[in-house]
Design goal:
This protein is an alpha/beta fold. It folds into 2 domains: 296 residues, 3-Layer(aba) Sandwich (Aminopeptidase); 114 residues, Alpha-Beta Plaits (2-Layer Sandwich). The chain contains 9 helices and 16 strands. The two termini are 18 Å apart.
């Protein structure tokens, strides 16, 4: 990767490292407000309204997406969907998009002694989307100020996307709504509680995995447990499907593809002496490799049918396509690396491994090149083992300023290189 010095950024501009204390305090307060009022996918009306109001107060013209939640906002270009700003030969210059996801999870907030814990029962920002949203908002406010002063060399689009946690992800609907029209590159961050605040993790190539949802129903005639030979022993059948299908898949796919079926729910029966007539399983299929992910539905269907038929059970399979892996583009990953090191030095970037988690940011990368960075949210020196999607998840709020610095510096570098 190339190494850019801080001098490569516009020296007189109010760069992210020089954010005022007032703006930092405002952003922390904004994040806490979102954290206290989490909303599920496609229900983020209050969140959307809060983002819109702040952008309009900064003199910007955000556009709410057709579903009523989520919005986009262009900086340094006309508000029309086809973008603007002169590029080479007078053609419109493709925009850099900064993407944030705005929805929460359907789990209770289990944090104790925190004034900003969720006020909504069984709802929590346990994946850090409130932090993602706040960093893109903060970057937008800084970039808008730069644009008013004539210091923003290339246009930028802010994208606040709903329903990331809802398979196959709100990104697909956002793309249909035209959020990528006029966009040439896209970047994002995701909170990582294994990385210290003040640092980011980067990886060229796949940084997340594919994730699909699988639901299986098994049926048989049922009967008395005294005579299993006269009926379909459905409990044994569902147990064999649960145990044997993942093992079969492991022998039918290259191990390097990382295809893994893991069950999260199994239900059957009501009495100890009655063989039930119905059983259900549900789980996820995750895959590290894009090609193997494309073949996964056929492989999973065949394996389930084989095991169910062997035990005399009729199977009904609902395979719900989720998201492909997020595959970071080398040039955009380099942009994020250079932006972070320009602001905070080489020590602020670390390598990160590919995660088995899914992220619908991958749908954007089917259309334009982009990259996602892991934003450190662990308090330096802490030994707490917090994880995403847990009710006690929280973020060191120093990460908000870091995210704003990263997005803003990336936009400035991208403009200078265009």
């Amino acid at each position: 990767m190339s190494r850019e010095s801080e001098a490569d950024l516009p020296g007189e501009a109010p760069l992210p490292g020089e954010l005022s204390e007032a703006l930092c305090a405002e952003l922390i307060a904004f994040r806490r407000d979102l954290h206290m009022h989490p909303e599920l996918g496609n229900q983020e009306f209050r969140t959307t309204a809060a983002i819109r109001a702040r952008l309009e107060a900064a003199g910007l013209e955000p556009r709410v997406l057709p579903g009523g939640t989520g919005l986009t906002c262009d900086i340094g270009t006309a508000t029309g969907p086809k973008g603007g700003g002169a590029g080479k030969g007078g053609a419109p210059r493709p925009m850099l998009a900064l993407r944030a996801d705005i929805d929460a999870l359907p789990i209770p907030d289990a944090k104790a002694g925190v004034a900003y814990r969720s006020t909504v029962p069984d709802r929590a920002h346990a994946c850090g989307h409130d932090v993602h949203t706040t960093t893109v908002l903060g970057a937008g406010l800084v970039l808008a100020a730069l644009h008013r002063e004539g210091r923003l060399a290339a246009p930028v689009r802010l994208l606040f996307q709903p329903a990331e946690e809802v398979l196959p992800g709100g990104a697909a609907d956002a793309i249909v709504a035209g959020v990528l029209d006029g966009v040439g590159r896209i970047i994002a961050v995701h909170c990582d509680p294994r990385v210290d605040a003040g640092r980011i993790g980067l990886r060229t190539g796949a940084i997340t995995s594919a994730c699909d949802r699988l639901e299986v129903a098994l049926d048989g005639p049922g009967g008395h447990t005294a005579r299993p030979h006269l009926t379909t022993d459905l409990v044994t059948a569902v147990a064999r499907v649960a145990a044997d299908v993942p093992a079969l898949l492991a022998r039918r796919v290259d191990a390097r593809a990382g295809l893994a079926l893991t069950w999260g729910r199994i239900e059957s029966g009501h009495a100890c002496n009655v063989i039930p007539m119905h059983a259900e399983l549900a789980g996820t299929v995750r895959c590290l490799d894009l090609a193997a992910w494309r073949d996964a539905p056929d492989l999973v269907h065949a394996a389930i049918d084989e095991v169910a038929t062997l035990h005399g059970a009729k199977s009904e399979i609902n395979y719900v396509r989720g998201v492909p892996p997020v595959v970071n583009d080398p040039a955009i990953t380099e942009l994020l690396h250079d932006a972070m090191t320009a602001r905070r030095g080489a020590f602020s970037v670390e390598d990160t491994e590919q995660s088995l988690g899914g992220e619908d940011f991958s749908w954007y990368l089917e259309h334009v090149p982009g990259a996602m960075a892991r934003l450190g949210v662990r308090t330096p020196g802490s030994h707490a083992r917090l994880d995403l999607h847990r009710g006690d998840f929280d973020a060191d709020e120093a990460a908000i300023k870091v995210g704003v610095e990263l997005f803003t510096a990336a936009a400035l570098l991208d403009g200078n290189r265009s």
